[in-house]
């Protein structure tokens, strides 16, 4: 008996020693994101983990936690947790940060962008840096911008071809700005966690939702619970990799440069796969039985006019300096 206990203790200490030797100097960072493990968000986060492990010879390991599980399922709380150092890293989208930083709503103002060139001129240009500066004031260092994408509307009641078709639809929305947009269209918006949305759609608690095709709708199989999709491109949503300022400040310049390079490459990859999945996505969704409607330029203009009041309300909240910087970069991209 005594011998057995001694034996186990000895074995345990040998194992512990081996484990420590194998991970000498290694540090594991926790990365939280708020979609499932099949999305391009998750793939981008895993790519970042792989790249930073490679660049640091395994000194920095990143463990990716999907579905906002580190913030109790609350997708809006992640940014605040990173800001105070309770989480090391986050991959989340702009709309999720608006409770903490209302200015982040600028990206998703209805019909701000008409195409990807305009998007890239802001996220990969001076406006993106401007927003990174604002997030830094909240303790979040933006390492790179990626893509959730243009958010398209789905529902189970009818095809949406004009603003009138939105009237009376019970719509799940992610954040405060979209409540105002849905109200402007005469829909009934309800803010809900993404993690609860598929079930809510399935059970008919809500009729519809809106999300990007490549990054979320396809990988999260929204087509299994929704019949109609309209590519109205009404709002763009970027994602970003952010690290807590506290953690960032603990690294030397060389390590910081490695973190930034890994994040840039990972988000560039993530943008690419999101755009590819979106481009091939319409056909895929039709094959899966969805009825997809692609509005004409005139019909898009009608949606734009119908959501103008929400644009104006939120442009005022964001402030003319930031909105102006975005509009300037967008105009120059044309
Ligand atoms: O909740 C959503 O709709 C999602 C996944 O797109 C965001 O995080 C904004």
Any chance you could write out the topology, listing elements then pairs?
Elements: H1 2-22, E1 27-33, H2 40-55, E2 60-65, H3 77-83, E3 89-93, H4 94-97, H5 116-123, H6 126-136, E4 140-155, E5 170-173, H7 176-184, E6 188-191, H8 197-202, E7 208-212, H9 213-217, E8 228-244, H10 245-249, H11 253-279, H12 281-287, E9 291-293, H13 297-306, H14 308-318, H15 320-333
Parallel strand pairs: 1-2, 1-3, 5-6, 8-9
Antiparallel strand pairs: 3-8, 4-7, 4-8
Bound molecules: (2S)-2-hydroxy-2-methyl-3-oxobutanoic acid.
Characteristics:
single chain, 334 residues, alpha/beta, D-Maltodextrin-Binding Protein, domain 2, 7-stranded mixed sheet, two-stranded parallel ribbon, 15 helices, 9 strands, globular, disordered N terminus, binds (2S)-2-hydroxy-2-methyl-3-oxobutanoic acid
Write up this protein:
- The chain has helices at 2-22, 40-55, 77-83, 94-97, 116-123, 126-136, 176-184, 197-202, 213-217, 245-249, 253-279, 281-287, 297-306, 308-318, 320-333; strands at 27-33, 60-65, 89-93, 140-155, 170-173, 188-191, 208-212, 228-244, 291-293.
- The protein has 334 residues and is an alpha/beta fold.
- The chain is globular.
- Residues 1-23 have low confidence and may be disordered.
- Bound molecules: (2S)-2-hydroxy-2-methyl-3-oxobutanoic acid.
- Residues 34-35, 75, 93, 95-96, 148, 174, 194, 211, 216, 237 line the site of (2S)-2-hydroxy-2-methyl-3-oxobutanoic acid.
């Amino acid at each position: 008996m005594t011998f057995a206990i001694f034996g186990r203790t000895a074995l345990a200490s040998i194992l512990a020693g081996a484990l420590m030797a194998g991970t000498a100097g290694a540090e594991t960072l926790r990365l939280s994101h708020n979609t499932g493990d099949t999305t391009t968000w998750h793939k981008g986060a895993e790519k970042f983990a792989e790249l930073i492990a490679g660049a640091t010879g395994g000194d920095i390991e990143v463990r990716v936690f999907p579905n906002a599980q580190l913030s109790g399922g609350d997708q809006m709380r992640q940014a605040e947790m990173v800001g105070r150092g309770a989480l090391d890293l986050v991959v989340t989208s702009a709309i999720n940060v608006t409770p903490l930083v209302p200015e982040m709503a600028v990206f998703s103002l209805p019909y701000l962008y008409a195409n990807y060139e305009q998007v890239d001129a802001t996220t990969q240009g001076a406006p993106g840096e401007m927003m990174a500066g604002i997030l830094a004031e909240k303790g979040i260092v933006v390492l790179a911008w990626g893509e959730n994408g243009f958010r398209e509307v789905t529902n189970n009641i009818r095809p949406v071809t004009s603003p009138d078709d939105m009237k009376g639809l019970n719509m799940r929305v992610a954040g405060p700005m979209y409540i105002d947009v849905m109200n402007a269209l005469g829909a009934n918006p309800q803010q809900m966690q993404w993690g609860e949305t598929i079930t809510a759609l399935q059970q008919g608690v809500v009729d519809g939702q809106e999300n990007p095709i490549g990054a979320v709708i396809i990988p999260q199989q929204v087509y299994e619970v929704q019949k109609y999709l309209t590519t109205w491109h009404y709002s763009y949503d970027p994602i970003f990799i952010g690290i807590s300022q506290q953690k960032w400040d603990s690294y030397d310049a060389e390590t910081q440069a490695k973190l930034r390079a890994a994040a840039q490459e990972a988000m560039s990859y993530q943008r690419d796969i999101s755009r590819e999945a979106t481009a091939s996505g319409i056909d895929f969704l039709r094959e899966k039985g969805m009825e997809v409607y692609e509005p004409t330029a005139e019909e898009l203009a009608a949606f734009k006019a119908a959501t103008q009041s929400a644009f104006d309300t939120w442009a005022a909240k964001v402030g003319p300096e930031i909105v102006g910087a975005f509009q300037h970069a967008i105009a120059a991209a044309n």
